Amino acid sequence: MTLTLIDRTRCTDAAPEKGADTVLDKDVADPGAAPEKAPDAAPRRAVGREADGLAVASFVLGLVGLLVFNIVLGPMAIVMALLALARHTRRRGRAFLGLALGVADLAVLAVLVTANGIVAWSIGG
Asked: What is the average per-residue pLDDT within 18-26?
């Protein structure tokens, strides 16, 4: 099976009288022209990727915090979710889930403290 990529920036089947030469020579740099500045797409992608990572991390920390170390992981999940939402993440649902799970971590902590009277974890029995 062969995969063929189509370059849509070149118009090879255009008629010569309609300016096909200018379309084909668009990729050739003019030596007298000023260099073009690339748009700032790379920093935006990095910030978007970072915000998406924060949303996923807040979800995971909130989920793990339901089981262990909710006094630490709950607030961390809340902060990361709020940072992800402030940075306009594409994973808003996951950020909101991380926020809800962080709040649930603190609620579980409050229930355990009122039931036992102390904040303690028993790892290893």
From this structure: 50
Structure token pair of residue 113? 């403290």
Query: Which of 70, 95, 100, 76 lies closest to 85 in space, CA to CA?
Result: 95
Q: What percent of the chain has pLDDT over 70?
A: 56
**Cβ contacts of residue 80 below 8 Å, gap of 6+?**
54, 55, 57, 58, 61, 98
Give CA–CA dist 15/81, Å, rounded: 55
The model's pLDDT over 35-61, given as tens digits with 9 standing for 90+, comes to 555 555 555 566 668 888 899 999 999
| Alpha-carbon span 83 to 55, nearest angstrom | 8
Q: In the chain, where does DSSP find H-type helix?
A: 20-24, 41-65, 70-86, 92-116
Cβ neighbours, 10 Å, residue 85: 19
Other CB atoms within 10 A of residue 76 CB: 18
Predicted TM-score (pTM) of this structure:
0.59
